[in-house]
């Protein structure tokens, strides 16, 4: 998923625990109600996530060659508790516990996965002469540690091939942790990728890279300390690995529907361009009877619109590509793996899982379009669109990363753009001027604060956050407004089922209280810079 970290970044740790506030009685009640709404008695996902466990690094800790911590699971030990605290949505708590199960896992004899040692999974396949690595994580440090963990338990064969499933950085950025460029140039290692990989891997990181990186601070909760009032999970995985990216250009482009044999391993490919990523491929391994769906399927609702910012994805095509692999491979596959989360372990469950994922994206697309064509606006659609009970009770359809709400807005925007056809919104005042006048119309700062405190006490946090946005825009120095706005965002974060929403709310609360989180920007990564075409370089200059 990740495409916004082409620049090396270091985020200061937030001393958030010292200033965060406990969940209110209203939030505790909201979260308690979740326990009665979802099938928490179904714990099969925990069995599936632990199945095939081989071994793990002590404390899940990875230190890079310069002594910096690139990955650490020990701060998430608080997730060992059985019950979610009042400050975490119980559904998100469940997902956070699943994404805390880390280490090396056997899928079948000859195929292994490194899970939760970075945001994504790294799949390792034993070929005739060496190893095939699928998606070498986000950073070289975590990829190297994952391969070393594999070597602790299996034979130390060289890596002879790398497959990039798609153009997001968490699926290629660690490549130099598993192979070196000299071996690729010498022909000792082949690197395979779908058509358009390099173009999209570079373009999205460069053209809008700075803006996306800033927004990714909110989406992933960069800098938030792990804890029951802080970071618990991203939904897609535990967190982002820390460190710079690497990139080695593919030696081979995989055409659609290709059947290739790589180091004795037969692979049938299925492209899915323009869905979760602009360039993406899935694959089936007939020798293992394993289907790898890359990031086209996952154990939750993914993003049609991603809040870090990106081109809107085509939910209708996404659904159709899932149907294609369902028809083409489901009757042959005995295990389904993906490049995030844990496997599906039997054929009946594979078919059901693919049907749920297909219907999930199709439902959001079709119902948004239906409401749109009835004249409803994005906010109305987001508020009213619900999943049918057949999907709502499926854990793999829950909104831990994408949400029905912001995905519905994304579908609307894909077809209709930002303008809602209300002429009053065609050329509105700039935000600060509009907010200043709005606060004046509402009776001034003191009166707005008085009313907002009453609404906060009643648990109307969405409204309080919205009104305080206007007040802070009108007067950024109003400390009471900033504190009340932060309090409202914090409670919304505690209630959020999506890891992305929780992170965004809690980072927003921190910045209202303490100022903007300013990452140390160490520039575009050298490998990405070298891959820039001349036209892209000048495009990036603005």
TrEMBL record:
GO terms for molecular function: linear primary-alkylsulfatase activity; metal ion binding; protein dimerization activity. Its cofactor is Zn(2+). It comes from the Bacteria. It holds the Pfam family Lactamase_B. Residues 119-340 form the Metallo-beta-lactamase domain. Keywords: Hydrolase, Metal-binding, Signal, Zinc. InterPro entries: Alkyl/aryl-sulf_dimr_sf, Alkyl_sulf_dimr, Bact_Alkyl/Aryl-Sulfatase, Bds1/SdsA1_MBL-fold, Metallo-B-lactamas, RibonucZ/Hydroxyglut_hydro. It is an enzyme of class 3 (hydrolase). Residues 1-17 form the signal peptide. Its EC number is 3.1.6.21. GO terms for biological process: dodecyl sulfate metabolic process. SUPFAM superfamilies: Metallo-hydrolase/oxidoreductase. Belongs to the metallo-beta-lactamase superfamily. Type III sulfatase family. This is Linear primary-alkylsulfatase. It comes from Marinobacter adhaerens (strain DSM 23420 / HP15). The lineage of its organism: Bacteria, Pseudomonadati, Pseudomonadota, Gammaproteobacteria, Pseudomonadales.
